[in-house]
Write a structure and sequence with these properties.
Layout: H1 2-24, H2 27-38, H3 43-68, H4 71-95
Length: 98
């Protein structure tokens, strides 16, 4: 899926694939991007795609907590999720070539 998206839609296709894959699981896209980078792919694209997948996965988990968790659970996990999102945004603004 990553190879197809990259060949037909460029870097943005790879990023979108990472976001979609991250909805359910970030492991598969992480392995795929690591393999791509190992065999001559762009290291920056691999890192960005992995981060997008992880943030997508984290967002889905946060939504599950919001919709299914009680108020105490929401309060407990809010700052943890917020710190993960902020760390990802800081990386994108400081080191990414978007």
């Amino acid at each position: 899926m990553v190879k197809y998206a990259g060949e037909n839609f460029g870097d943005n296709g790879t990023y979108i694939t990472g976001a979609i894959s991250g909805i359910t699981d970030a492991d598969a896209i992480t392995l795929s991007m690591a393999k791509m980078a190992k065999f001559g792919g762009d290291y920056g694209i691999a890192v960005n795609t992995i981060l997008i997948a992880v943030l997508s996965n984290t967002f889905v988990k946060f939504m599950i907590v919001l919709f299914l968790g009680g108020i105490e659970l929401r309060k407990t996990v809010f700052f943890g999720f917020l710190s993960i999102f902020l760390a990802g945004l800081v990386y994108f603004f400081l080191y990414s070539d978007f």
